[in-house]
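Quick check before the chapter quiz. The format below is the same one you will see on the exam, so make sure you can read both the input and the output lines.
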Amino acid sequence: MIATPISTLCFVKKGRFRPLFGLLLAVVLSIGPQRSSVADPGPKEIPSNLTRAYAQTREVLQKNAEDPDAAWQFARACFDLADLDESNRAKVAEEGINACRSALQRYTNAAIYYYCSLNLGQLARTKKLGALKLVDQMENALKRAVELDSKFDYAGPHRTLGLLYSDAPGWPMSIGSRSKAKQHLLKAVELAPDYPDNQISLIEFYISSGDLKNARSAVPDAEPQMRAARLKFSGERWKDSWKDWDLRWERIRRRTQADLTSPRSKS
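Here is the expected output.
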């Protein structure tokens, strides 16, 4: 298994694909969430560590074009940067995709397929109807990553596939499938039960599906894993990740304790 020392922001964003896919696909279909009355805060500030990682890994790849690890590490940096750099998102994502595709002509590697898919997701955010065409490519790349190393990035290929199937429109428009989503999210929990995003994503899926029985049953099972995770995933590296996970976990606790009759109900 390839070691994956991923940056903090990358851990946060890769684990939480509902903003990346769900909102995108909802906008494409004109069924997105209600627009907020809050004014657009404007472009996000891009942390210097992301631009630095992008420049450093790009330089390494240019000097070691035959190195498959250099390719996926650069693609990872592209994904991180594209997530916040809206004005250059398409350009940066395409650089990551091209690096992966070039490497895949010579190597078969789970990490390369995985980060190719993630950058395809970033590219999809810049498209309209064309975004749905990219979803199939994302699915295929993630399937190959599962075949090659299903445990990579704490079962990231399964987790991401699950969220993709959950949020994509169903047949005949796209690949969306609740049964496939559940299958992959459960597998992610099985392979890496102490990774918080796997537990949280599965319970969020149950809630969004209106399956509060399974959501409520899953919370007690997840709680000891969440406690153990605080010891394993600790320190400055995980600080931003825990901000995200704690927020989502508290939302889960509120939703599962409430008497909801539909996934759209307010707690």
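If your answer matched, good. Residues 205 and 232 are 25 Å apart (CA to CA).
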